[in-house]
Amino acid sequence: MLWKRRDTISTEALAPEEHEVRNAYERGRRDERKARKRHPIMMTLTFAAALVGSLVLALAIKEGSFARSGGIVDHGLALATNRAQPVVMDAARDLKAKTFRQTES
After folding, report:
1. pTM reported for the whole predicted model
2. Angle 21-24-26 (CA atoms, 0-180°, nearest 5)?
């Protein structure tokens, strides 16, 4: 019965309705895109966190336990901190010296 009903409706009568439906659909898509606008920095941080998480999981599989992989990650972070701290302190000292020189001038 439904297939016969479509035959009885003229194609001219359907065209404006289909056009209205298409326009409403496009407006809805635009509105939804505006509502779900993504912030590029937050997306970058999310992907970075997902990457770190996947690396920790892979390390846990390789090492056989989360405890050992956590120890390896902690050791790596401690090394990075120990190496970075003098560099950061030197950079801060240089910036302070440059700022002091500029304010004296």
Report:
1. 0.46
2. 110
